[in-house]
Structure formats: structure tokens, C-alpha cells
Specification:
The complex is a heterodimer of chains A (242) and B (206). Chain A has two helices and 14 strands. Chain A is mainly β and 242 residues long. In chain A, the strands form three sheets. In chain A, strands 3, 4, 5, 6, 9, 10, 11, 12 and 13 form a nine-stranded mixed β-sheet that branches. In chain A, strands 1-14 form a two-stranded antiparallel ribbon. In chain A, strands 7-8 form a two-stranded antiparallel sheet. In chain A, a hairpin with an 8-residue loop joins strand 9 and strand 10. Chain A is globular. The mean pLDDT of chain A is 95. The chains are: A mainly beta (242), B mainly beta (206). Chains A and B meet through strand 2, helix 1, strand 4, strand 10 and helix 2 of A and helix 1, strand 6, strand 8, strand 9 and strand 13 of B.
């Protein structure tokens, strides 16, 4: 019988290194010593499990989850949807997906954000959901706006939605950002460009998905997310050992 | 051409940014949206074992506190069992073993309450000393940093721990030991994390 073993080693050639000088904040926040490579034990293979009792059905609808009754946030109405898969192409089922973003004007509802674009009284800017048996998730929201940030004097973040993923083991824990097809700011962004691999950057760009739009109502973008895959232990001793 | 391997590739990480609280701890960002935020109660009401508190500070290469950091903790219960279907054994009702930890925005100090985990069976039957797995994200951290917290009052178990013993430089092992200090009824452990510089904390590629 095949049993599930360790996670595939993370491909660090496609992941951003800690130190990326053009993203200035990383300079003093990146370890200088090499990471110690650790083969997986139970501490890495396992991870928190979430269920439908943890969240509310409305949590994935950012058009409604902070709006006053009968009102709606300002901005382009979008559906962001896709699948969470592992590197073997299998769906990651029942995993928690959390998202947060700026409003259509590029302003976050956060006490530390002082950008002059206004807060939208009907928009909180966060959502969460669990993937279904096919690994599928969706959010309804408004398309976030670009906004300036202090790095070089004139840096603008491309429109993006932050995404947080768990998978089944703590070694799969991932935070990333979803960008939108056609945005000219993507190529100029020092945070995007922390990623050393062009294909890995393209993998972060959601594609316009006309088939998933709701005609006369909401436009759709598709964004699939891949978490680390696991080996099948064919012949080796079991992970727990004896 | 030989056959193609059809594996997918892991999605690239991006920094959690300064506003991570909106998504993962909206109360800290300054608004109330969910019926219940996740990760504030690590052990639950029924957990056996010793109730403890852990506090610390994350500092950057200049020694300044990182005030916008977010940590996640993942731990076994007092019997060394993780609340996960692949780990044999039972945990107490309400024990999840996972927590989210945010800082005081003014000082950068963080802390959480839990129970002390038990030793966990490691690879090839080697027992791992009691430890809490930590994952650290913030603005300026491009990919989450993994480390482990061990306990100063477990010297014997720590000396035999297969992960601590992987660290070739003995002096660096000390960066993973939280120091116990009894204050009042609940034992308090101090665990400061240095991202860079002298006595930089050990981080793992797991």
C-alpha cells in the first residue's frame, strides 16, 4: 500500500530569498545565516484542521460581510475563484483560505494605513472560506485599487489580494498575493520582483475568466494556488519509525 | 525527448505586508467583522498538563522591535499528540494546538497562553523534546520563517533532541530555548527572536 510521506522539498529557486535589496524593509528583517534544513517529522507533517463551525457562510462575500443593510461597497464587482491543489495535482480539500485587500481606492481598513484615499463605509476588506471536495474556493469582492508605498520615492503596488493558505501540514503554510491580468504595475513592483523566476511570477497573476462571470452583474478572475506535494512512501520505513 | 514529469510547482510566497491583521486578526486592525476570530485559544478548556505563558519580542538586524509581526504556533498536547488525523492518539475536546499571536503595536511585545507540550515521537523513533513550532510573517519577510521554541527546564530532553543536535554550532542552539521564570501562579517563559545580527535565531527550511 502507498502511504503519504514527507512533503517535497521546497523549490527555493522559485521562492523569494530573504534578502532582496530593492524591497528595502527586507534588508534588516532577513536572516543572515543559512536556514537549517530539516527533514519532516510529525511536527511538520501535521497542521491545524478547520471546519465549517469555525466560519460563517457569509465570510467569503466581501460585498456583503461588512456592508450596511441594502448597501454595497464602491468598485468593480468581481468573483475571485479557483482551486487549491498540491504539486501532485490533487485537490487540497477542506482547507482554510483567508483573503484581505484594500478597497477600490487603494485604502486598507487598518489603523496604521494613512493613505489619503477614503475608507469605504461598506467594505471591511477581509474574507475566509474552506475549499470543497474538489479543492475549489471562491470570494465575491470589489477589485482593489493600486496604492503608493514608501520604498523608493514613487512606488505603487499593483492591485492585489493577499491570500493565506494552510494545506494539511504546517510545512505547507503559505501567504501569497494574487495580481490581475493586464496590470502594468506588476512588472515594476519591487515586492513582485523579489521572486527570482518569471514563471513563478506569472503563476501569481489571476486571469480574466469570462465563463465564470455573472452577465450584467459581476466579472470573474481565476486564481489557482499550488501547495507543496507529498511523497508516497513506497518501500521506506514509515515516518514514525519503530 | 523523455517523458515529461507532470508535477505542478508550489505557488511563490509574497510578504504578508504591514496590514496582515486585516485578514488574520481584524480586531487588531481596528474592526469587528467575524463572529469569532481564529487562533486565540490554543489549548482549550479541557487540556491536561501545565498551564504556561510565553512572551517575547521579535527584533530586526538593528535590534529594533518589529511591531507589525504576526506569529503562528503549532504544538502537541501534554501527551505529545498533535490534533491531526494522521497523528495516532487522542487530544482533549477543544484542543487544537494552533494559535495566532499578534504584538502590542506600541512596543512589539507579544505573548500567549497555552499548555506545555509533551515530548513528540520523531523520525526513526528518536524522541523530540517538548517544543512549539513557530511561523513568523511580517512586512519585509518575503517567505514565512519557521523556527522552534524549546523549554529551559527540559535540559536532559533538549540534549537528546534530534533537531537541536542538527545545529552544528552549539552556541546557536541556545537561541531556541525559552527561559522559565515563575511569576505568580503561571510559569512564564521568555522567548526573544532575533531575525538578524548577533545571536540570530536559528530558522529552519522545513
Amino acid at each position: 500500500m502507498r502511504t503519504q510521506g514527507e512533503f517535497y522539498q521546497r523549490d527555493r529557486t522559485r521562492q523569494p530569498p530573504g534578502l532582496t535589496r530593492d524591497y528595502k524593509t527586507s534588508v534588516s528583517r532577513s536572516p543572515q545565516y543559512a536556514l537549517i534544513s530539516l527533514q519532516n517529522s510529525a511536527s511538520e507533517i501535521t497542521g491545524p484542521v478547520f471546519g465549517h463551525d469555525d466560519i460563517d457562510p457569509i465570510d467569503n462575500d466581501l460585498l456583503l460581510n461588512y456592508a450596511q443593510p441594502g448597501q454595497s461597497p464602491i468598485g468593480e464587482r468581481i468573483i475571485l475563484h479557483g482551486r487549491v491543489l498540491d504539486e501532485n495535482g490533487r485537490p487540497v480539500r477542506g482547507t482554510l483560505v483567508e483573503a484581505w485587500q484594500a478597497n477600490a481606492g487603494g485604502r486598507y481598513r487598518h489603523k496604521k494605513d494613512t493613505y489619503l484615499a477614503p475608507i469605504d463605509p461598506n467594505f471591511g476588506g477581509c474574507g475566509r472560506t474552506l475549499t470543497d471536495d474538489e479543492g475549489y474556493y471562491y470570494f465575491r469582492t470589489v477589485k482593489p485599487g493600486a496604492y503608493p508605498w514608501r520604498n523608493w520615492v514613487n512606488n505603487w503596488r499593483p492591485a492585489h489580494i493577499h491570500m493565506s493558505l494552510f494545506g494539511t501540514g504546517f510545512a505547507q503554510r503559505l501567504i501569497t498575493q494574487c495580481y490581475f491580468e493586464g496590470d502594468p504595475l506588476i512588472a515594476k513592483c519591487p515586492i513582485v520582483n523579489t521572486i527570482p523566476d518569471d514563471e513563478a511570477i506569472e503563476q501569481l497573476i489571476a486571469r480574466l475568466d469570462l465563463n465564470a462571470t455573472i452577465p450584467l452583474d459581476t466579472i470573474a478572475y481565476k486564481f489557482d494556488i499550488v501547495l507543496r506535494g507529498r511523497r508516497s512512501t513506497l518501500f521506506e520505513n514509515r515516518l514514525e519509525g519503530n | 525527448m523523455p517523458q515529461e514529469l507532470s508535477y505542478l510547482k508550489e505557488t511563490a510566497s509574497q510578504t504578508a505586508g504591514p496590514y496582515v491583521h486585516i485578514g488574520l486578526a481584524p480586531g487588531a486592525a481596528g474592526f469587528d467583522i467575524y463572529k469569532r476570530e481564529l487562533g486565540w485559544d490554543i489549548a482549550g478548556p479541557n487540556a491536561k498538563g501545565e498551564r504556561i505563558r510565553i512572551e517575547g519580542l521579535v527584533t530586526d538586524g538593528m535590534g529594533s522591535p518589529i511591531k507589525d509581526v504576526l506569529l503562528e504556533a503549532w504544538q502537541a498536547n501534554a501527551d505529545g499528540i498533535y490534533a491531526h488525523p494522521e497523528h495516532p492518539g487522542e487530544v482533549e475536546k477543544g484542543f487544537r494546538g494552533w494559535g495566532r499571536v499578534i504584538t502590542d503595536f506600541e512596543t512589539g511585545e507579544w505573548g500567549f497562553d497555552t499548555v506545555k507540550p509533551g515530548p513528540v515521537m520523531g523520525r526513526h523513533g528518536a524522541m523530540m523534546a517538548p517544543h512549539i513550532n513557530l511561523w513568523i510573517v511580517a512586512r519585509g519577510i518575503n517567505i514565512g520563517l519557521n523556527t522552534r521554541l524549546y523549554f529551559s527546564d527540559e535540559a536532559e530532553a533538549n540534549a537528546a533532541d534530534p533537531v537541536l543536535n542538527l545545529i552544528e554550532w552549539e552556541r546557536r542552539r541556545g537561541t531556541l530555548i525559552a527561559h522559565r521564570d515563575q511569576q505568580g501562579d503561571v510559569p512564564l517563559y521568555r522567548f526573544d527572536i532575533k531575525l538578524q545580527g548577533e545571536d540570530e535565531t536559528v530558522f529552519f527550511d522545513i
